[in-house]
Design the sequence.
């Protein structure tokens, strides 16, 4: 699509009776970004996604796509619900034809596009099977197909892979990687590893509040420990007690099969430590700089 | 407009797949047959049931006229069992898609709520009109065969009046279906309110003007006497306004996303 998508979410607040699901949430998504909305169950992800998809009303705040209210831009948005539900009596290609007609796509165009799209999402053989016979993964793929059908500039997906088995997950993730080349994507998930594969930017939401918004690199750097991971041979374990008293070593932690040595200045101190080790005739089996926590750990740290 | 056609087609396909286009006409045909046949055999039935000692069946009792039989098809079959069946057949019209999320899903597409609602109401209304017409035609045929024939013009005008009452029935059930989530409750409250409307018809001239069920009463009067009074048209206007009002409420309800 020719429009340059820029989605602005301004101060969205949504209350359900007593519970506030989303509290003054703001963010901006630029063209060709792939943003992962991450949060534990009940954090308000689905509510936010449904507000963006114009299924729910926000109590306050507005959402603007390319300078227009989101409700007027439905043709530029593809939406995949958490549990895509279709009419069980329709076949896969009938479903797409129906959804496509609703988006105002001409019959000829649909006839051309549907088989290609079904092939793309791996449902080529099931084009004329009834949706009622589909498994969860197949429905999910059909859901993705319907979200792509009208070639939207912006796709919103609510937990696209959470309900799938590992094989289905892999297929859908590969599909997403393919899609994101030409489309802006916002997807929600509570499994960080999934988001990590396709998204560059993560927005973490907890209890309705945005608590983090950063790219993967920023996140990793921000939560990087100045620590050295090292492992030595058994006979040299004694040596470790001596380094504890070195002025530049803050503390030592036992960690799995090795030790984490916390220092002040990572590179300078690593050099000194290595030198000290060599001088003491210690054989290192592992020496790792700048221990990175996995995103999963960062995520846990953020939300728990 | 395109979305309206696509949605209407979908509704029709769905009614076909759910066999609603088969069973609903059959039920109405049976309903239409019941009245003339039962009235024809009533004396025989009473006699064979026994327990009529002391009751004298007047052998010179005049057979009821065809008009009377056809009119009673409307008010004692279609307006009783007919309403119950129609309410049950229509109760899921919006509730079903509301419950499984299809309505919200469809509305994420550039589809106006008006075309969504209109497609639902129109297709269900057309089906109901077809079923009623079939049942009515059956009743008319058997009435002319077993009793006396009814002037065809009268019968048609009466049917037209009845269809206005039918429009109110469908819209009302659809409105309940928009408001509530439990199908038994939708059916119960629809049947209750529609029955009350029907029973109130003819009680008071003022009530009659604003009561949509009066159209059904007029239909029977037209069959019996052939007279069309002037105020009937006023009642039609009031009923149509009520229907429009209910559609506006449904639209508002869905637009405000209170489901």
Sequence:
């Amino acid at each position: 699509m020719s429009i340059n998508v820029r989605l602005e979410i301004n101060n969205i607040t949504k209350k359900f009776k007593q519970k506030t699901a989303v509290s003054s949430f703001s963010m901006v998504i630029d063209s060709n970004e792939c943003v992962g909305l991450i949060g534990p169950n009940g954090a308000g992800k689905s509510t936010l996604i449904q507000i963006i998809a114009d299924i729910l009303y926000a109590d306050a705040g507005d959402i603007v796509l390319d300078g227009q209210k989101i409700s007027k831009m439905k043709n530029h948005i593809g939406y995949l619900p958490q549990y895509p539900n279709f009419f069980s009596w329709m076949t896969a290609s009938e479903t797409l034809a129906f959804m496509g007609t609703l988006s105002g796509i001409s019959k000829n165009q649909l006839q051309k596009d549907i088989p290609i799209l079904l092939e793309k999402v791996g449902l080529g053989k099931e084009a004329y099977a009834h949706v009622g016979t589909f498994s969860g993964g197949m429905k999910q793929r059909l859901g993705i197909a319907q979200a792509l059908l009208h070639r939207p500039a912006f796709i919103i997906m609510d937990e696209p892979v959470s309900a799938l088995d590992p094989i289905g997950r892999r297929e859908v993730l590969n599909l997403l990687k393919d899609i994101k080349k030409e489309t802006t994507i916002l997807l929600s998930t509570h499994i960080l590893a999934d988001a990590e594969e396709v998204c560059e930017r993560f927005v973490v939401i907890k209890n309705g509040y945005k608590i983090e918004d950063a790219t993967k690199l920023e996140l990793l750097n921000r939560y990087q420990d100045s620590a050295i991971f090292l492992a030595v041979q058994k006979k040299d374990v004694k040596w470790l007690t001596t380094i504890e008293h070195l002025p530049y070593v803050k503390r030592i932690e036992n960690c799995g099969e090795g030790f984490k040595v916390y220092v002040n200045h990572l590179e300078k101190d690593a050099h000194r430590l290595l030198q000290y080790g060599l001088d003491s005739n210690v054989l290192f089996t592992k020496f790792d700089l700048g221990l990175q926590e996995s995103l999963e750990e960062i995520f846990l740290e953020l939300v728990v | 407009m395109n979305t309206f056609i696509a949605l209407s087609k979908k509704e029709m396909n769905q009614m076909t797949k759910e066999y609603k286009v088969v069973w609903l006409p059959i039920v109405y045909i049976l309903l239409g047959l019941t009245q003339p046949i039962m009235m024809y055999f009533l004396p025989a039935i009473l006699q064979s049931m026994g327990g009529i000692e002391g009751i004298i069946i007047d052998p010179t009792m005049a057979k009821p006229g065809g008009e009377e039989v056809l009119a009673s098809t409307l008010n004692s079959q279609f307006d009783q069992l007919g309403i119950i069946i129609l309410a049950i057949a229509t109760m899921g019209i919006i509730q079903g898609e509301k419950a499984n999320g299809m309505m919200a899903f469809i509305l994420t597409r550039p589809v106006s709520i008006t075309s969504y609602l209109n497609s639902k109401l129109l297709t269900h209304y057309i089906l109901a009109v077809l079923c009623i017409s079939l049942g009515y035609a059956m009743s008319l045929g058997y009435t002319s065969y077993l009793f006396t024939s009814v002037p065809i013009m009268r019968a048609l005008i009466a049917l037209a009046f009845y269809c206005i009452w039918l429009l109110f029935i469908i819209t009302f059930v659809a409105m309940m279906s928009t408001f509530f989530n439990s199908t038994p409750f939708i059916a119960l409250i629809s049947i209750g309110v529609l029955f009350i409307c029907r029973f109130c018809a003819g009680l008071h001239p003022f009530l009659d003007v604003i009561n949509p069920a009066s159209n059904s009463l007029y239909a029977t009067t037209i069959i019996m006497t052939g007279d069309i009074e002037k105020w009937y048209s006023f009642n039609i206007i009031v009923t149509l306004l009520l229907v429009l009002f209910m559609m506006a409420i449904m639209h508002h309800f869905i637009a405000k996303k209170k489901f």
About this structure: The interface with chain B takes residues 50, 53-57, 74-75, 77, 79, 81, 83-87, 89-90, 98-99, 101-104 of chain A (CB under 8 Å). The longest strand of chain A covers residues 19-29.
